[in-house]
Amino acid sequence: MAELGKLESAVMDVLWRAANPLLVRDVLDAVTADRALAYTTVLTVLDNLHRKGWVVRDKDGKAYRYRAAGTREEITARTVRRVIETSAHPDLVLLHFARSASDHELHILRRVIDERESDA
């Protein structure tokens, strides 16, 4: 994920694989298989991801349990949406994207347009 740093991406991978929300310690244990990290480092990363809207946290006693704010695909789509919306010329960004899209991507876009037109 281009918007995330290496450690943020590793933490998100852990959260996407998890069946249930995780404590900081759970995330730390999962990401330290490859490297040694401090608890506070993982806590800071999770706080940053929460601030960015990638992670949701729920209070559990004195701690928080963390989970991804959506699937990998949903969050990626939100990121693309944010890029388009924050551009000075969103229409041009969308045009450039559409012109660079593969045949497969255009097929998907056409399917969505057709669905919207049939619902109207």
Automatic annotation (TrEMBL):
Domain of life of the source: Bacteria
Molecular function per GO: DNA binding
KW Transmembrane helix (keyword) present: no
Keyword list, A-Z: DNA-binding, Transcription, Transcription regulation
Any one biological process term the GO annotation gives: negative regulation of DNA-templated transcription
Signal peptide extent: none
InterPro entries noted in UniProt: BlaI_family, WH-like_DNA-bd_sf, WH_DNA-bd_sf
UniProt record similarity statement: Belongs to the BlaI transcriptional regulatory family.
Identification of the protein by name: Predicted transcriptional regulator
Species this protein is from: Micromonospora sediminicola
